[in-house]
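Task 17 of the worksheet. Students: predict the tertiary structure of the chain below and write it out as structure tokens. Keep your answer in the requested format; marks are given for formatting as well as content.
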Amino acid sequence: MWSGGRGMYKNITNFIGCDAEYEEARIVLFGAPFDSTTSFRPGTRFAGQAVRNDSYGLEIYSPYQDAELPENLVYDCGDLELAIGSPEAVLGQIGECACEILKDGKMPFMIGGEHLVTLGSVRAAAEKYPDMHIIHFDAHTDLRTDYLGVELSHACVIRRCWDILGDGRIHQFGIRSGEKQEFDWAKSGHTDFHPFRLEGLKEMLAELGSTPVYFTVDLDVLDPSVFPGTGTPEPGGVDFLTLMNAATEVCRRGNLIGCDVNELCPPCDPTGASTAVACKIIREMLIALGRRFA
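Model answer:
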């Protein structure tokens, strides 16, 4: 970058306001550009760079929360360089990154990528916080035992998380798509299941109290009229303000130890509207977390 005769500087593109040094940051933002198990429309691997670039259309101030993204809160380390063709290797790389962040007493905030990337962070988080719970916003159950014979798929990611945590520790909201067996399995008590909408969230957060929480947001929980840029759009979702208010509620009131936002597919929405929505959700979550840390 040229700086008006004062010399050349390295070109670094961070999510807006996320330019703290690693040592001082409370949150570490990183991208997981992986979509190799996507079952319909690929392209989520481009989400991390898209939201960083488009974040410069935002301000660091949120009129919704009447707060700014605090200085020195977030270190953005960019996208991970992930293995090609091996989901298990990719999950290992994500887990290694998340483990290092957690070891240093910081919170990992991951931008997917398809939803399978969540499993890498959850494995790392569960190692440090074996009593943790997961809050899951999504259009899809993601509870299949396998998808076309493959157990490591974005259609199976929450089932793989259940393999780690067991019954009653995964709280699912907004679900409106999946196989009947998945719905029946969830409703039988394996997960805390809240289909179609985000009702019951405040009560659940009050029950969890100080329990460590990992928060995963699949953006296809939004209606495709709001968010068409995703690999598996499902009509009947929530609107932007509903998701924003719910996500910031989790960030303010939950004892979050890690989180992710995933399944933005920029090529599926050439207007850029879906990327703008993703940017704003991420900004609002970061500001809410910053208010909690203050």
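Marker's comment: The longest strand covers residues 255-262. The chain is about 35% helix and 20% strand.
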